User: Fold these one by one.
Assistant:
Number 1:
Amino acid sequence: MRFTVLTLFPEQVRNFVEASITGRALARDIFALDTVQIRDFCDNAYNKVDDTLYGGGTGMLMMCEPVYQAWNSVISQAKERPHTVFLSPQGAVFTQKKAQELLEYRHLVFLCGHYEGIDRRVLDEIVDEEISIGDYVLTGGEIAACTVIDAVARMIPGVLPSSSAYEEESHMGAGLEAPQYTHPEIWHDMRVPSVLTSGHHANIREWKRLMSIYETWRKRPDLLANLEVSESDWITLLAWRAADADKNEPDTKDSD
Ligand code: ADE
């Protein structure tokens, strides 16, 4: 898999992707990263990539030609036409499902905008899909591109130690992940749930399934409709909720 990022700030992208887990995978050639400096494709003496808006308005807009030529430098060398993604707050909001879809492409090209954005004509010509990483506005598309690359790259075989490392995680099965614990068994008077130390695999699997529903219900009730919850599941979930409510009741005991 190859990621190519068209950007005015290639070092920002490289610094991020070359660090940590993705950096190790890059060094082992599990995937490839190219960055293309859009400014290198200016056809004016001042290396100017942006200009004022037709029709008025504040700020500057990135011009068509440097963006087009930067993109074309990639496309003209690619064996197959890559899939081009424009990062913008107006795109469809990025999800785990979208990350899985993008994993199917052999070559993804990310176009990062700056200033007030990019002239619509070049977007209409080169962009296959527009993605936002959330309903807020960043100074540019680089952080968004890094976010998408990270979410896709970690699912490439060999990037994480094993696929089970991500298959059980939040959002992979539409719900959130069950809470996880490591040593010591008791910390600050809090004990690891006894089912997890029981060694009973079927019970552990069932506890994780129910806990995943419970966490989704508590933290992201908007996702609950994606999950199958039986009547008997609800009995357990309601009992857990009642027990949690008891735990969180203010202490009514006399303090003197
Ligand atoms: N560029 C600026 N804001 C963005 C966002 N929320 N998502 C993707 N790209 C962006």
Number 2:
Amino acid sequence: MTITRDDALRQVPDGRLFVDGLWLEGSTGGERTHHDPATGEVVGKHQLAGSVEVDFAVKAARDALQRGELADPVRRRLLLSSLADAIVAAAGDLAALQTLEMGQPIRATRAGVALAAEWFRYFAGWADKLDGTVVPAGGAVLDYVVANPYGVVAAITPWNGPVVSIALKVAPAIAAGNAVVVKPSELAPFSALRFARICEEVVPPGVINVMPGGPGAGHALCAHPGVDKISFTGGSSAARAVARAAAENHTPVVLELGGKSASIVFADTEPTVVGKLGALLGTIQNSGQGCFLPTRLLVDRAIHDEVVAAVVATAEKARLGDPFEPSTTMGPLAGEAACERVLSVVEDARHRGDGVLLTGGQRAGGALAAGAFVQPTVFGDVDPASPLAQEEIFGPVLAVMPFDDEDEALAIANGTKYGLAGYVWTNDLRRAHRVAAALDAGYVSVNGMAALPPAAPFGGWRGSGHGVEGGRWGVHEFVRLKNVCVSLG
Ligand code: NAD
């Protein structure tokens, strides 16, 4: 079914915070007006959480745990399954609101919502399977290990995939028996508040609280003595602030941060793949606003010119436009500030001579001039040590670099502070595994793009953070172990 901008505007929540099963009237964090990044027009107003609401939400989560709302694993399984069903039922609204608030094309937001439901369904299955173990202790001793929830989890999420980001944290946290305070980014409040309406229908009060807010609310949560675990996704500088605040109470933290991931294209890549390289998705997909997207393209010199020509042609064919239009492949950036920031990064790179601008680099004009649209931008012959090749841009900017052999490719790929993802394109099985093993990153794809299946661990190394989301490893991030040693003698 086609969803229009008007449909989406009719679904915009009234902007109140959802705490303890109630919609709060007013907030100490103030109010914010949100603009549609595709048109610049006002979408609506919403409340921002302040420290008073943070206190209220942490207490509500603690009370829900004390009432035993999450004590029964079977009940948790059913609760997560109900959330998955309710997300599927509300998929149209959730996708439309994301497209409206952050400009991602509707086909992609629909896929994101379907993925979010999958994560809830997958972790429903874990809720009653977190068993303990008996440790061989010898003699008349029974020693056993029990998996316990932490208690209250703070889930701090980014704006660039708002519903799936909530699913990645909330689903495993609840499966493990924790109550959650979700603080979505202030830049994507409405899909999160629509998710809160789902929680109102299917979740007991206080189990999931949703309160969009800015850095102040994030800090109040991270420094709160009633928060037992923090799961944060965002950029490096906010992550430092999170880690500092968490250190005050020794609160454990999972940090899912940014990246500057490389696609390495070897000369033996399947020729049919070369022309339509998924590598370029690093620029077009979500307008380059994805943590694990391949924003560096390293190409074997033997096929360099051919690949670069194909990549530039694909960039120039991208359908920039209204993200509600089903044929649009690339929407705006998340807002005017992001647009200005990306254009200034491009300008600085040109000025310094970090590489050769092959296409793009401009704001889109004409009918798109009022929105935050930047043309897909490709720089060739980029200096691997330059800021253009080293810093996360979070925009539609691809840095292309040639290489002469596998060692050089790996040295460039591993030569940034980040270690989130890596992409290998080759027809040689041995090379594929060898390079995958040598990439200094937590998530590697061979001849394809990362897809975030819920059963696999996703997480960065080095400057891309620590801890994972997904699979048994992801649910264990929300579990703490207790050893019980019983003397039977
Ligand atoms: P951001 O760091 O600006 O904000 C992320 C979240 O942190 C938001 O909810 C924000 O309000 C909050 N925040 C900001 N300052 C804070 C503080 N001092 N204390 C506590 N919370 C604070 O990032 P963003 O612009 O929302 O998202 C883009 C960044 O997120 C990029 O770097 C991207 O690569 C990264 N990201 C990583 C992943 C991953 O899984 N590794 C996924 C998506 C995005």
